[in-house]
Amino acid sequence: MSDIVIGTVPLHGHVTPLLNVARHLVERGDRVRFLTGSRFAEKVTAVGAQHVPLPPEADFDDRQDWDVVFPERRELSGIRALAFDIENTFVRPAQSQYQALQTLFAETPADAVLTDGAFAGGAYLLGGDPAQRPPVIACGVTPLFISSRDTAPGGMGLLPVTGPVGRLRNAALAQVARRLVLADAQRVADGIHREIHGTPLEFLVLDWPRHADAILQFTVPEFEYPRSDAPEHLHFVGPVSATGSRAPLPDWWSQLDGSRPVIHVTQGTFANRDYRQIITPTLEAFADDDVHIVVSTGGRRVDTLPELPANTFAAEYLPYDDLLPKTDVFVTNGGYGGVQYALRYGVPVVTSGGLEDKPEVGARIAWSGVGRRLKSEMPSAAAVREAVRHVLDDSSYAQAAERMATAMADSAGLQKCVEVVDRLIGTNRP
Fold first, then answer.
1. 2 vs 109: CA distance, rounded Å
2. What CA–CA distance (Å, rounded) separates 360 from 336?
3. DSSP code for 58
4. Residues 6 or more apart whose Cβ sits within 8 Å of residue 386
5. For 269, which of 13, 40, 193, 380 is 20 to 30 Å away at the CA?
6. pLDDT digits 0-9 by tens, 363-388
7. Rounded distance between C-alpha atoms, residue 117 and residue 416, angstroms
8. pTM for the whole thing?
9. Long-range contacts of residues 360-364, Cβ cutoff 8 Å, at least 24 apart
10. What is the three-class DSSP state of 7?
């Protein structure tokens, strides 16, 4: 039996995939301590792991409006808003995350630590003597953000450009990102590292998973850009979970009888406060069409939706293992987990733009040919209609999504995860 510590930032889309990993580890006999937000305690204990709450300064509720949590953010936009978010939600909590990990290690030494890539406390574990710490494994629950000469910096949503021109572009953009977006966050990160280890970080804080002992990326290579300089410890394991798959069947379920194409639209569980991002324009675009529109609010009350057209059904959560085989197009604002789950069933995707990792998700949808992306965060009904109709009428998108589904079905999933964990534990045991 191994003692595994899992740490995640308290975001639903980051916690959920690691819950599945925790369940698998527990079922095979490992002890798992799961360090994350207090609101996830019940979900953690339900998989058999021990919930450990993050310190208050690192804990937050992702259902809150960020502009309420951080009033000073209201006046920011564009690059300034992105820089603020990176510093305050990614970097500053890292010191408390690291201290919480040290407290856990003092109680009982861990054989391995798994964290999501946004859990920057993992970066400070790497500053210690490798022989005196457990192996640190970064889990990719968002698109792969590690630096590369072959890709633009993460967050820009730019497709790869091959050859010398592309590498020149990427190098120039990386310099711009360091100076305009990451400078303040890196200063904070360096200061935390000095407090802990006496020296600044030897790498960019956002790039810390590249320096971990392993990266487990929860997708397949076919959905990720090729990188000639990818680290050897990068492992693609395929998607390991999704939300909503155990929701009950709604009472209108029998009406999805195959007589009309089904368009499923959702904004996930995080960026679902403003339905204008993708739900409202989708309802407007297809209100009079011979289709079924199926809406998931991601946990918000159904009565918070705008008036529903006659061809529309809605629920807070939906049973995706039942819904996706009936779905012709998945319309989303770009949540990584939801897109991965749709592609597991070979469903092509239309996505709007947005913040967080969503521009990168949309870019990979376009690059891989499994759907269309709308670069606007709040696209018009006409733009949504054109994109969805294009995907419905052009079979190449469904074919690409089916190829992706085949690759995902062939991936090792949780078994690959535990193989990597066991190998690293073995190399660190006396």
1. 10
2. 9
3. G
4. none
5. 380
6. 999 999 999 999 888 999 999 999 99
7. 18
8. 0.92
9. 360/142, 360/143, 360/145, 360/154, 360/155, 360/157, 361/142, 361/143, 361/334, 361/335, 361/336, 362/157, 362/334, 363/157, 363/158, 363/159, 364/143, 364/223, 364/224, 364/225
10. strand
